[in-house]
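TODO from last week: model Sodium:proton antiporter.
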Amino acid sequence: MTLLQIASLLIVLAGVFGAINYLFLKLPSAIGILVVALFASLMVIVTDALFPALTVEESIRAQVLELEFSEALLEGMLGLLLFAGALHVKLSDLRKAWLLILLMATMGIAVSTLIVGVAFSWITGMPMMIALIFGALISPTDPVAVLGVLRDADLPKSLETKIAGESLFNDGVGYVVFLVLVGLAFPSGDAHGAGLSGAVTLFVQEALGGAVLGIVLGWLTFRVMRLIDDYALEVLITLGLAFGGYELAVWLHVSAPIMAVCAGLLIGDIGAKHGMSEETRQYVDAFWKLVDEILNAVLFLMIGFEVFAVAFKTDFALAGLMAIVVSLVARLAAVSIPVLMLRPFQSFSTGVIPIMTWGGLKGGISVALALSLPENEWKPLILTATYIVVIFSIIVQGLTITRLADRIGRTPELPHD
C-alpha cells in the first residue's frame, strides 16, 4: 500500500469507528475509537483461529507491521500532537506548580524507572539494564493520552492543566532517559555511543538542546507573527514551526518532543497574547484543536490495531498483568515523593496524590518506544507488557478518573499559597 492509501484507510476507519462509538458506545471519543478498533482486531484473531484457512490475521498483521507505528508516531505525528497539546496549556497556570512539575518530570521519572526496572527484572529474570529500559519507556505519562482523555473527563480546570503540563514535560525527559539507557545497553546498535560519560553528554544535549531550540524557534516565530495580521498565513506559520522545528531537532540530535513542547507553550501563551489579533487567535486555536482531534483519533485507532504486532504468550500476558501493578506503584511513588518533599513549604489538598496517580495515563508513545528497540530476545516480552499496561491505562483508568474525582469531592488543587 502507498502512503496515501494507508493514510486514507486510517482516516476512513477512524471516522467509521468514531461514528460507531458515538451512536452506540457513547464513550469519550479517543477511548471509544480504541475500544472499537481493539474489538475488531480481536474478532479477526478469533475468526482466524476458528477458520485457519482464511489467513485473515496473517494478512492484516503484515499490513499493520507495514504501517511502522513507531516511525509514524515518533517521527511524524508526535511533533504535531505535542505542539497542539502545549499550545493550549498556559504558562501562567504552569507557574503555580512549576516546582512540583519539575520534580515529577525529573526525580519522579528516575524513581519510577528504578522501581519498574528492579521489579520487572525480579518478575521475569530480565537483565537489569534491559528492565530499566522497560521502566524508562513505561514511566512517563503520555501527553497525547492524557490530553485526549482529560478533555472529556470534566476535571477541575486547574488540576487538568497541571496534570497535562506534567505529562508534557515528563514525556520529553522520559524519552531522553530511554535513549540514554538504550545507548548503554546496546552500544553496537545505537549511534549515541556508550559509557557513562556518553550517557551524560547525550542527556544534556538532548534535553537542554531541545528546550533551547524550542524557545529560540518559538521566539523567532512570535517576532515574525507580530509583523503580520493575516490569520491564514499565521496558521500556516505555526504549522511550519511544528513540522520544521521537529525535523530540525531530529537533524540536530536534540530532543524533538521537548522542542515541540517549549515552542508550543511560548506560542500558545506569549504569542497568543502579544503576536496575534483576536481573529487570528480564534482561528489558530480552532485549527490546532481540530488537528489534535483528528490525529488523536488516528493514533488511538492505530493503538487498537497494534494488537496484531504483540505476542500474547501465557507467560508474557502474566508478566504484563503484573506490570500493570508495578507501573501503578511506581507512579504512586513518582507523585508522592515530590508532594511530600514540598509539603513543609506548600499546602496540598488530599486529592492531589490519588488523582495524579490514577490520571497518569500511558499511551502510544510507550508502544512506539517498545517497537523501536533493537531486536533482542527480550523485545517481544517488553512489547507485550507495554501494550497490556497501555490498554489498561487508557480504558480502565481513562474511564474511571471522573468517578475518582467525584468520590473525593472534586476539590483537589495543586500547590497554593
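Done. The longest helix spans residues 196-226.
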